[in-house]
Amino acid sequence: MLERLLYRSQATHKLGSLHLFTLLARARERNLRLGITGHLLYLDERFVQCIEGPPSSIETLWQRLQVDDRHFNLELLARGPLEARRFPDWTMAFSSYASFRRFSLPGFFPIDEQGMNEFTERCVRT
Ligand SMILES: Cc1cc2nc3c(=O)[nH]c(=O)nc-3n(C[C@H](O)[C@H](O)[C@H](O)COP(=O)(O)O)c2cc1C
């Protein structure tokens, strides 16, 4: 059985790219162990994250996310069972400003002027 959880939050500081990439690299390592896949959007000092995996792993991560002081005002947008993963190939795909392209980050997807791309749409779809 699989569960999906979608939330948004506000970044505590204007996170520098180095902090963001460190967060992402660690998240990907843990997600691999927890069987979690998903997508993270960072835009205008806000996050929108979609996590999917075994319900126990989702609960563990959700508890940690809520006490992580790198973001606040967490708002749960959706949570429920999922038939098939939307991001089977990504321990955490990452979408943000096209200017981040210069870092050649694996699993990075630039957003358009509306803050969207194929991944952000897949993440928020009901
Ligand atoms: C916006 C945001 C997204 C995060 N995404 C993940 C994630 O996908 N997987 C993960 O393990 N940790 C993620 N973290 C980090 C967790 O909040 C937490 O620091 C991490 O799981 C380690 O928890 P621990 O220090 O209690 O072991 C994220 C943190 C933030 C601020």
Automatic annotation (TrEMBL):
Annotated membrane-spanning segments are none
**Record-linked PROSITE patterns:** BLUF
Boundaries of every BLUF domain copy: 2-93
Q: Which SUPFAM superfamilies match?
A: Acylphosphatase/BLUF domain-like
**Domain of life per record:** Bacteria
Q: Which Pfam families match?
A: BLUF
Protein name, UniProt field:
BLUF domain-containing protein
Organism the protein comes from: Ideonella paludis
